[in-house]
Design brief:
heterodimer, A: mainly beta, six-stranded mixed β-sheet, about 0% helix, globular, B: mainly beta, four-stranded antiparallel β-sheet, about 50% strand
Chain lengths: ~110, ~120
């Protein structure tokens, strides 16, 4: 399977804490993307990091990429209850046409 | 960003009937759209790639006669679940990317919750 692995599968934290999610993949990439999915909804693109980048920021999000280890991490700082969602890493396969998703991390931020 | 609209949001149908799900790109033309299936608390699994004006490309293990895909225009792709059975109950999501931009972000519909009773 080309599906990436994410850990943890589930994460429960208190509001204000930081949340870190990790993603590992097996094949070479041009870029790696992170998406968020609220329960029962579609996916929203959060951030894209290119293979020649090591770190990228967007608001409270920080993504790192280590191509030598074929892994990426998503850090959400100062989490809020509204951050409760599933988070997926994704990368292109099939010659850059198909987007393949990792197994996902279910984040719950409690008040 | 670009907008992809999916309809209906949810549908309940009887076993043996067929259900059609629509996916529209509202502010761009999508020559290619993607259909995913997602079971509860699991990831998205790509079912097929919908190509405007030609046959869809199905992933291994996906029955093309069961999941009919039509992409008759540059803004509309449809997925028809034929002779639905309870095991077809799932969350179906479509996505598209802006043409000419490979390796970039994808835009997703809101998803359709299908329940077959």
């Amino acid at each position: 399977s080309q599906q990436g692995e994410e850990d943890p599968q589930a994460l429960s934290i208190q509001e204000g804490e930081n949340a870190t999610m990790n993603c590992s993949y097996k094949t070479s990439i041009n870029n790696l993307q992170w998406y968020r999915q609220n329960s029962g909804r579609g996916l929203v693109h959060l951030i894209l990091i290119r293979s020649n980048e090591r770190e990228k920021h967007s608001g409270r999000l920080r993504v790192t990429l280590d191509t030598s280890k074929k892994s990426s991490s998503l850090l959400i700082t100062a989490s809020r209850a509204a951050d409760t969602a599933s988070y997926f890493c994704a990368r292109f396969t099939g010659g850059g046409n198909k987007l393949t998703f990792g197994t996902g991390t279910q984040l719950k931020v409690e008040l | 960003g670009a907008v992809v609209s999916q309809h209906p949001s949810w549908v309940i149908c009887k076993s043996g009937t067929s259900v059609k799900i629509e996916c529209r790109s509202l502010d761009f033309q999508a020559t290619t759209m993607f259909w995913y299936r997602q079971f509860p608390k699991q990831s998205l699994m790509l079912m097929a790639t919908s190509n405007e004006g030609s046959k869809a490309t199905y992933e291994q293990g996906v029955e093309k006669d069961k999941f009919l895909i039509n992409h008759a225009s540059l803004t509309l792709s449809t997925l028809t679940v034929t002779s639905a059975h309870p095991e077809d109950s799932s969350f179906y999501i479509c996505s598209a990317r802006v043409p000419g931009q490979r390796n970039t972000e994808a835009f997703f519909g809101q998803g359709t919750r299908l329940t077959v009773v």
